[in-house]
Each structure stands twice: as C-alpha cells, then as structure tokens.
Design goal:
Strand order of the largest sheet: 1-2-3
Strand content: under 5%
Oligomer: single chain
Largest sheet: 3 strands, antiparallel
Number of strands: 3
Order of helices and strands: HHHHHHHEEEHHHHHHH
Radius of gyration: 24 Å
Distance between the termini: 82 Å
Length: 306
C-alpha cells in the first residue's frame, strides 16, 4: 500500500527528494506498527494507536518535524479511505503542534559573505565547474529562485532576446516570467558554450536541462545544495540553507527601494503577506523615518559647539 501511495504521490509532479522523504516517513511508521504486539491489521489501526506513534516520534523533534510527520500520515490516511480500507481518516481530526513560520526573521547573507562565496566559486577547479557554480550563484541571488525551480529550469526557459527566465508554477500554482540582470545574463551566456561542450563530450545532446553536471545529467536539487555548501565551507561562510539566497534577494531589493508588489511578482509569492515579512529586515522607509529622530539634532548641536 505504501509503494502504491508513493507512486501516486510521485505522479503529482513532486520532486524526487520530497517523494523519498515521504516514503521514509511512512516506512518508519510501518516499522513501528509491525513491532507492536499483537501486530495490528491495517484496517484495525485506531486513533489511540495513532496517538501513541505520534507521541513516540515526537521525542527530541522540532515542532515543524512533528507537524510534517502528521501531515504525511494524514495524506496516507486519505489514500486508505479512497482505497476502502478505512471508513474514515481519524488523522483529519488530529492537530499537530502550533507552528508559527513567521516568528523568526528570514536569514539573509551579508555582502561580505556573498562576495566570499563568489570568489570561492571563481577559484573552483575546472573550467566547466567554475562557470557552472558562478552561474548557479548568479541565478540564486540575482533572481531569487527556489532550489526546486532552479533544478527544473530547461534551456528553453531562458529567452536570450528578452533577457528573461520562465519559471514554472509548481510551488505557487502560476507560471511567472523573471527578467535577469546584466550580470546574470552574461553568466548564462558564458555558461552556454561550456554546457554544450559537456553534453557533446558525454553524448547527451538531447538533455534539455539548463544546469547539467559534468556527466551531462540534469543538476539535481541535492547536488545544488551540496555544491553551494561546499563553497560555503571553503569560504568560511556560515550558510544554513540555499534558501538564504532567496531571502537575500528579497531583502536587498527592498533595501534598494523596489516596491513591495514588484518583489512579490519577482519571487512568485501567492500573497503579499509572505513578502511583507522581509520589510522587518530591509525597510528603507523605516530607515528614513528613524533618520528624522530628534536625537540626531543633539549631534548637530554638539558639532556646532565644538
């Protein structure tokens, strides 16, 4: 049943890493159920047993992890209802821990660390690898792409005449077109011939992915993360997640005076509320307002007295 559900889950177009993570969660649930004595039948699993498993899997786990586990179980429960094995899904009435995703400020990468990453990418061994990782950094920071969106980019998504990237709407439900800066455009232009040479050498000229590995295959999301974290370790940059490039793109655009609605369209946020949280770390209007604080007059008077 788990294998059938995972196949159905994969057919929705969800990235392979998420599918594998979901399958692992369900496998852990199944192993725990099999270890019960007497072993319960799938049709006989009741709310108390489900509650016991959730409690057991919650020890030393973050709230978001527990909530994600419950969400995965709930989805599988709905599948069992559709298959007629459960009359109803009791997980629908179980609530996980309260998660407040906006309780912490988004983590951005400061200018010095960003420059250190670019210098390290430029020192990468091998002409193709050097060009590839400089281009990856340019796309992540210059366009604010999510890691999955970057992985799924095809060569056809880059319009050279319009200098735009067409981004799929798998996350937000709507496709968007993002203009690229001159630096990102030049990185993509330099990467194009290097990409072609690799595909020709590996006899993979039919590969449609924009970003490819040295083996001529689509660069996976995991490979993107591993490569960026390797650059960060070498450069001594305290990088937590690749998603920090997206946070940095949003906050730096706002700090440069770009309108909130424009940042929303560039990043592809469904609601403006998601974009608004970046004003807590980059708000030029608030900075201008505090500059008018009367305390600044004290400094002027002190300077005149001197």
């Amino acid at each position: 049943m788990v294998d059938a559900y995972v196949q159905e889950y994969r057919a929705r177009g969800i990235c392979e890493a998420t599918v594998a993570h979901t399958a692992a969660r369900l496998a852990r649930w199944g192993s725990w159920m099999k270890s019960r004595r007497p072993r319960p039948a799938l049709e006989a699993i009741d709310p108390p047993l489900l509650t016991r498993y959730i409690e057991n899997s919650s020890h030393f786990r973050a709230k978001a992890t527990v909530y994600g586990t419950l969400s995965t179980m709930r989805g599988f429960g709905d599948y069992l209802v559709r298959e007629g094995l459960w009359p109803q899904n009791p997980l629908r009435w179980m609530k996980g821990p309260k998660v407040t995703p906006y309780s912490r400020l988004p983590r951005r990468i400061d200018r010095a660390h960003m420059e250190a990453l670019w210098r390290e990418a430029a020192r990468t061994r091998g002409q193709f690898s050097r060009t590839l990782w400089v281009t990856v950094l340019a796309l992540l920071y210059g366009t604010g792409l999510r890691r999955g969106e970057l992985e799924r980019l095809d060569l056809s998504a880059f319009d050279r005449s319009e200098a735009t990237l067409r981004i799929d709407g798998r996350k937000s439900g709507r496709e968007r077109c993002v203009p690229v800066t001159d630096l990102v455009y030049r990185c993509l232009e330099a990467y194009g011939p290097a990409r072609h040479n690799v595909l020709e050498r590996t006899q993979c000229l039919s590969e449609c992915a924009l970003l490819v590995s040295r083996r001529g295959e689509r660069l996976s999301a995991q490979a993107i993360s591993n490569g960026i974290h390797t650059l960060a370790r070498r450069a001594g940059v305290p990088l937590v997640s690749v998603h920090q490039f997206r946070h940095s793109c949003a906050s730096d655009l706002l700090e440069a005076g770009v309108h909130l609605a424009e940042v929303q369209r560039i990043l592809g946020h469904q609601g403006i509320a998601t974009t608004v949280r970046y004003t807590h770390i980059a708000d030029p209007t608030r900075r201008a307002a505090i500059a008018r604080h009367p305390i600044n007059d004290f400094l002027k008077q002190e300077a005149l007295a001197a």
